[in-house]
Amino acid sequence: MRRLMFLVPFIVLFLGACSSESEENYTQMLGAxxxxxxxxxxxxxxxxxxxxxxxxxxxxxxxxxDDIIPSIGDxxxxxxxxxxxxxxxxxxxxxxxxxxxxxxxxxxxxxxxNEDFFFVNPLGDDSIDERLNTALDNIxxxxxxxxxxxxxVNQLIGDNQAE
Length: 163
Prior knowledge:
About 85% of the residues lie in helices and about 0% in strands. By secondary structure, the chain is mainly alpha-helical. The two termini are about 40 Å apart.
């Protein structure tokens, strides 16, 4: 019994250290998310400008396929590298990963659209219009899902700061 009483302070100290480490990791993860998300948004803005300029279409495709999509994977890995134990922190981490999945899905749709369509329909082929409209509808739906996922991340971060 005396040995057990002797171990209790060490167990409490150990659990306190784990909680402190999780809190520190959470704070670092938030900083990493903010930095990487800002960089990602800058890349997305540049790519959107290139897509809108017909002459830079190939550059935009290369940027999406060779730069943005791989950087999203790196971003996801960075977020997943943080070891968290608090349930609320894990929920934020999962929401961040979901957001990055939505961004990646959107980039794949943008890439496919720009590979499949040149935005010229010289023969007035209705099937091209249908496929284009379907692709644009899919992109709009994915953009909405991405924005909802980002709002969820922001809400969860705000909820955790309020605690």
